[in-house]
């Protein structure tokens, strides 16, 4: 969708019809056909986008841990645990925060805690981005934050723009006309 690496996907070739002449079954002929086949199958299989997530360690006085919650929740983050640091009045808070929402987070935390908190962040894992990236009914408005169910579509469109790709992902460019007609007939048969 965005010309990014694909995760957790296995491709099995169950059947292949190759040309008789060796010149017509080299890598130059097989690889582009296989690539089109994989791309079209990925796009028709309800694909989802993934987003990176930071693990945060926040050190702050114990009495202001509750002041961190609003700063995290407004950015789709959440606290997973907190524990006191032995021999100090400080508390260590563990939290998760999507990387895309982390910009300016440290400034917000220092504002909420009046400069009493220190934030350390490191990449932890990938999460599914909320929403359907292929949902064309979602309309994005410039300079307005998107609701959570629209984020995957927003990520898709903005990433494609940044890479100089068209905004819309079309499956039809991976199919030839005969295959499109056959798929349409099979879909009609399934709906009956």
Automatic annotation (TrEMBL):
Its main location: plastid. Signal peptide: none annotated. GO terms for molecular function: GTP binding; GTPase activity; U5 snRNA binding. Keywords: GTP-binding, Nucleotide-binding. SMART domains: EFG_C (SM00838). It is found in: Plastid, Chloroplast. GO terms for cellular component: chloroplast; cytosol; U2-type catalytic step 2 spliceosome; U4/U6 x U5 tri-snRNP complex. This is Elongation factor EFG domain-containing protein. GO terms for biological process: mRNA splicing, via spliceosome.
């Amino acid at each position: 969708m965005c010309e990014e690496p694909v995760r957790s996907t296995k491709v099995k070739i169950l059947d292949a019809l190759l040309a008789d002449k060796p010149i017509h079954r080299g890598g130059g002929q097989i690889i582009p056909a296989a690539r089109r086949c994989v791309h079209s199958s990925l796009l028709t299989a309800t694909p989802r986008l993934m987003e990176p997530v930071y693990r945060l360690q926040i050190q702050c006085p114990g009495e202001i841990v509750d002041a961190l919650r609003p700063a995290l929740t407004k950015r789709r983050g959440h606290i997973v645990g907190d524990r006191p640091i032995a021999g100090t009045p400080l508390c260590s808070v563990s939290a998760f925060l999507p990387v895309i929402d982390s910009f300016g987070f440290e400034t917000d935390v220092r504002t909420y805690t009046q400069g009493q908190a220190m934030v350390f962040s490191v990449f932890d894992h990938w999460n599914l981005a909320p929403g359907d990236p292929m949902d064309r009914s979602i309309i994005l408005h410039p300079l307005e934050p998107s609701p959570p169910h629209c984020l995957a579509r927003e990520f898709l469109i903005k990433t494609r723009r940044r890479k100089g790709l068209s905004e819309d992902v079309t499956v039809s460019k991976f199919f030839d006309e005969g295959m499109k007609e056959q798929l349409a007939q099979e879909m009609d048969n399934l709906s009956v």
